[in-house]
Specification:
The protein has two domains: about 110 residues, Sandwich (Immunoglobulin-like); about 230 residues, Rossmann fold. The chain contains seven helices and 22 strands. The strands form five sheets. An eight-stranded mixed beta sheet has the order 15-16-18-17-19-20-21-22, with helices on both faces. A five-stranded antiparallel beta sheet has the order 3-4-5-9-8, with no helix packed on it. A four-stranded antiparallel beta sheet has the order 7-6-11-12, with no helix packed on it. The protein is globular and about 70 Å long.
Amino acid sequence: MMNKTIAVWFAAAVTSATCLAQGSQTVAEDFKPSTLNQPGQEYPQVNSQGYARFRIKAPQADSVKVSLGLGGRGGTKLVKGADGFWTGTTEGPMDEGFHYYHLTVDGGTFNDPGTLNYYGSVRWESGIEIPAHDQDFYALKDVPHGHVQQILFPSKSTQTSRRAFVYTPPGYEKETAKKYPVLYLQHGWGEDETAWSNQGRANLIMDNLIAEGKIKPFIIVMTYGMTNEVKWGRIRDFKIEPFQTVLVDELIPYVDANFRTLADRSNRAMAGLSMGGMETRQITLNKPEVFGAYALLSGGVYTPDDLKGKPQAKLIFLSCGSKENPDRVKTAVADLKAAGYPAVSYVSDKTAHEFQTWRRSLHELAPLLFK
């Protein structure tokens, strides 16, 4: 691709090297390394206002840009210094929570070696965390922790062994006579079965809720939804039947046979974010006898006509970010309630189609399941 040797160190923060004003806001010089940085790496960094700063060593490069940006403006362009480092700051604060990003150096796409990688956009992307005012609910605390384990289950329909991750709550291994409800939790397009644990921190959300006595403990199963078989922009071409077969006919029986589950409709729920919500909607409408609760997180809505004549769910949960289409979610829930369905809406404040919306959604959803 390029003959140039590019040594890349990446830095993320909220202002420039000196205290400056971006727009009408003065940028605070209280930068700290992102909590997702690799051990010993100073960059990327973020500040208390949510700005991100980048610093890349690429002395032979002609241009360096970071995909992380605002308003669809193509990211953050960096400026080269005499020392060979490229530096730049987002033009404004980022939304709270997790964000994917990558570097574009002379037209080539690179990950930042200063931070950890997360599977999204059908590739391993760099990740940065903008501290949230409510981050305590997914913080790692000194409480009993459940386990997230990888399982491999046979799939005759795809002629492969497929992978899933299973969260079991604290005490599962010791309470050998106890059985648990199960939530099947789906990722979005471009992601895989690692997303809800790595980006979403689903296990920590559960651990903290259980420790606070706010939920009845349950198992979470996360598997690849086969979403990436279609390219972005061709989502309408996606066919649900192959994944529906894997989930309903292969994974659920495997989980029920190998974990202590309450293997009935009333103790089984399905939820998904974005395209995983679309999958949840289609499968729960096709197989309403399998799941007793449904949740779409930035993943569409149900109407009373969709559900007419089908076994009634114990809970229908619809959510999105306030920067998405909250009126659609609220209206859908109002219509469902008026028709006699047990529907709940949730809107995440000041977030868009991103993991902070979905972390908060799971935190709101979990106490409502399996009461």
